[in-house]
Amino acid sequence: xxxxxxxxxxTLASAALAxxxxxxxxxxxxxxxxxGKYSTNxxxxxxxxxxxxxxxxxxGGIKVxxxxxxxxxxxxxxxxxxARGAELAERLIKQDGIKFLLGPYSSGLTKAIxxxxxxxGVPMVEANGASRSLFTNGxxxxxxxxxxxxxxxxxxxxxxxxxxxxxxRDPATLKLAGAFENDPFSQDIRAGVLDDAxxxxxxxxxxxKLPKNLSDMTxxxxxxxxxxxxxxxVSGHSKxxxxxxxxxxxxxxxxxxxxxxxxxxxxxxxxxxxxxxxILCAAQWAPSLTYRDDLFGSAADFAKAFKEKYGYAPPYQxxxxxxxxxxxxxxxxxxxSLDQAKVRDALAAxxxxxxxxxxxxxxxxxxxxxxxxxxxxxxGQLKVVAPTKWAEAKVVYPRKRN
Length: 402
What we know:
- The protein is of the alpha/beta class and 402 residues long.
- The protein has two domains: 2-147 and 287-360, Rossmann fold (3-Layer(aba) Sandwich), CATH 3.40.50; 151-283 and 373-390, Response regulator (Rossmann fold, 3-Layer(aba) Sandwich), CATH 3.40.50.
- 42% of the residues lie in helices and 20% in strands.
- The chain contains 13 helices and 17 strands.
- The chain has helices spanning 2-19, 39-58, 82-94, 107-120, 154-166, 184-199, 218-227, 237-250, 263-266, 268-272, 299-310, 316-335, 340-348; strands at residues 25-32, 62-64, 67-77, 101-102, 124-126, 142-144, 175-180, 203-209, 231-235, 257-261, 280-283, 292-293, 297-298, 351-354, 357-360, 373-378, 381-386.
- The chain has a seven-stranded mixed beta sheet with strand order 8-7-9-10-11-16-17, sandwiched between helices.
- Helix 1 packs across helix 2 (39-58), helix 2 (39-58) packs across helix 12 (316-335) and helix 12 (316-335) crosses helix 13 (340-348).
- Residues 1-23 have low confidence and may be disordered.
């Protein structure tokens, strides 16, 4: 299955080489994880990029300064390694002559590549690096369509406080347990969660770093089982979400509220069934949201087309990746030029709605126009329960025992 889904990347990489000889093609470069621990989300990233590129080309391409261009992408496998990602970004720019980059998967890889694109004045639109530390370096060529990391699980902490108050409890009586991968993204989430918990006076009873391979959380589970927190938050990308869901069931660990990142891309419903019930999942996007654009239509339209093409429902990583390509295409047209400085300025002035959400960058390159959403697994489906404005279901609290 993995190889079939990655086939699109191979095809487009070949197409990029074929198009390279034509003045009517803009070739974007991307170092994305096709092997290593981020390969699952790397696959979603590539599929999102390919989906947008193919649809834009099928619709006739884009017009830049009175000339029509097709898009293509040249991919390399960064092997889920930051040093390799930086090396490949340099190769794309210096050896392959790529003038515009799409981002890799993960904050760690984005953090490694951003200094390279900045050095050479190469605009990069990224969709999968949410670490807030990316936007404190004064980068001028980095633009991110997604919400930043400190926002991911803030809504879960607030929701726990809200549920406690509804029961007549002081949120300060709540106990919180957390387990976080030791990477920039997850550590930023940790900082945001701890800050939010302190605002409510919650007690932090577990604050663990996940093991490097993310395959065994037994020490954390033992603490959680003994200390009985009211809220358990986990951030370890897809593998961490899968491990946490599996081991909570295997080790009979019950917590009234559980919130994670990357639940959808880890497919915790398909892999673990009832064990996933009631888990809250932080997400950048949901098919039920009312955003829309002229390329894909509505969020639901994108989800339907993506599933028909790739055989699975799109996680938000695929959606935000497709949106990154749309942002580049829009900037090319508004710039009326392929001059990197002019495209960079057009990106900085972006103010648009896509099927994925509203996109407007502040001076640091962050998207300031789109909030996070919070799903809950209910009866084997992901239902948006926060923010209330877009909620399609009420949160089930406390989580049922499985």
